[in-house]
Amino acid sequence: MKNSLEFRNGRLRILQVSDPQDLKYVRRSMVRMLNKAYDDLKPDLVVFTGDNILGNHLLDARFGTRKVAEGKEATYDSMYLALSHILQPVNRRRIPFAMIYGNHDDMNCVTKDEQADIYRQYPMSMKMNRDDKSVDCDTYTIELRAENGEVKYCLYMLDCAWQDKTGEKLCHTEVKPETVSWLKKETEKYKNIPSMLFIHIPLPEQYNFTEVCDAKSEGAIKGDDGSYIRLDKSVCEGVMNEPPSVLEESNGLFDVIREAGIQAVVTGHDHGNCFIGKYEGVDFIQTGAASFRCYGNKRTRGVRIIDIFEDGRYETEFRTFFDICGKTPLTAVEFFFDADEYEVIKYASLGSVALAAISGLAAAGIRKYIKKKR
Ligand SMILES: [Fe+2]
Questions:
Q1: Is the residue at 333 inside a domain?
Q2: Same domain for 358 and 223
Q3: How far apart are CA 367 and CA 55, in angstroms?
Q4: How many domains does the chain have?
Q5: 34 in a domain, yes or no?
Q6: What is the 369 CA–ligand 1 centroid distance (Å)?
Q7: CA of 191 to the centre of ligand 1 (A)
Q8: Are 230 and 351 in a shared domain?
Q9: Which domain holds residue 346?
Q10: How many angstroms is it from 200 CA to the middle of ligand 1?
Q11: Which of 17, 84, 128, 278 has a 20 to 30 Å separation from 197 between CA atoms?
């Protein structure tokens, strides 16, 4: 397993897949979208930025949320299958992949280390942390090297979520102080080398890209305190469909990022938010979810391309499901039948059809009965 990759003709293409968040009964549209993205966009590295599985529903029935199994063995088996849907396609294409966890990955009885071992079973997995016990297994660095072996760019991967395994069901979103100290030391080691940081949960500084507005303003969304906010388009580009759900505790993370001169912070978690803005010299890249099983929408369901160049620059672009799979009547139907947000309409329509059929049969039965009586 590697912890470094080489630029090809001065460029290295990353495909960020955030929040694929699915189960062993995977939604096929997501798998199709990802397969097509790998074939068409030809990434040199795929980065799964957390909530890679829906870790708190691994034992659910195929439909609904009724639990149909229990215990660690069943959880592990289901996790293994859920992960295979996202890892096999990259591994089969011999594309290196890296990962960090999100809040949903750890919401079960399997430990983060045990789960990391599933990723490690795939030959194309990048080398995660196993030796440094001060931080989690998904806190590590990937070096990007020139042909002569010189490190030209660093990707810092940071853990930020854990669940209390004592049965309290508490999920905490935090960058632990030890993780922040690790980053400080790591950036000192790679001083003056351009870098980017991947972390699942957005930083509280994302609120610098919002502005207060009234309820009827274009793009207005209701904040947690009942007031309305929207994306501040004077400092940010993209879409915001929900108030940023940020780290509960960041323990001075942004200060370290700024002081170390990290170029960009790449996040996921907020499925409906997809934008880029700059704050105090740092780019904030927020990416929508790939998952069809969980909430999302047409503008934010997709993947992000990040091209990093050997001279330290980078370019990024988000591609939606329709950009990747094409906008045709067939893809529109496919999207409708697989996307979570249409679930209510879908079941209501099916319910109406079923009700109409039952009513029709009942009416026919009554007519037959009356005829007989006469
Ligand atoms: Fe999340």
A1: no
A2: no
A3: 53
A4: 2
A5: yes
A6: 58
A7: 31
A8: no
A9: 339-374
A10: 7
A11: 84
Do 293 and 54 form a contact (C-beta atoms < 8 A)?
yes
State the distance from the centre of ligand 1 to the C-alpha of 112, rounded, in angstroms.
Answer: 15
Adjacent-strand bridge partners of 56? none
Instruction: Check if the beta carbon of residue 38 is closer than 8 Å to that of residue 90.
Output: yes
**Cα–chain center distance at 207:** 20
In a domain, 215, yes or no: yes
Q: Distance from the CA of 109 to the center of ligand 1, in angstroms?
A: 18
CA–centroid distance, residue 300 to ligand 1 (Å): 15
CA of 50 to the centre of ligand 1 (A): 7
C-alpha 371 to ligand 1 mean position (Å)? 62
User: How far is residue 284 from each of residues 234, 277, 321, measured CA to CA in Å?
Assistant: 15, 5, 22
| Residue 89 DSSP SS3 | helix
- Which bin fits 165, alpha (ψ -120 to 50), beta or left (φ > 0)? alpha
* 315 and 358 together in one domain: no
Q: How much distance in Å is there from the Cα of 25 to the middle of ligand 1?
A: 20
- Secondary structure of residue 217 in the 3-state scheme: coil
- For residue 101, report the distance from its CA to the centre of ligand 1, in Å: 9
Residues around ion ligand 1, judged by CB within 5 A, are 51, 102-103, 269
Same domain for 365 and 304, yes or no, is no
Considering the domain architecture, whether residues 131 and 269 belong to the same structural domain is answered as yes
What spacing in Å lies between the alpha carbon of 318 and ligand 1's midpoint? 19
Take residue 134 and report the two structure tokens written for it: 């001060």
Tens digits of pLDDT across the chain (374 residues): 889 999 999 999 999 999 999 999 999 999 999 999 999 999 999 999 999 999 989 999 888 888 888 889 999 999 999 999 999 999 999 999 999 999 999 999 999 999 999 999 999 999 999 999 999 999 999 999 999 999 999 999 999 988 887 766 677 899 999 999 999 999 999 999 999 999 999 999 999 999 999 999 999 999 888 999 999 999 999 999 999 999 999 999 999 999 999 999 999 999 999 999 999 999 999 999 999 999 999 999 999 999 999 999 999 999 999 999 999 999 999 999 999 998 766 766 666 666 777 777 777 777 777 677 66
What CATH number should be reported for the domain holding residue 86?
3.60.21.10
Q: What residues form DSSP beta bridges with 196? A: 155, 264
Ligand 1 centroid distance, CA of 355 (Å): 38
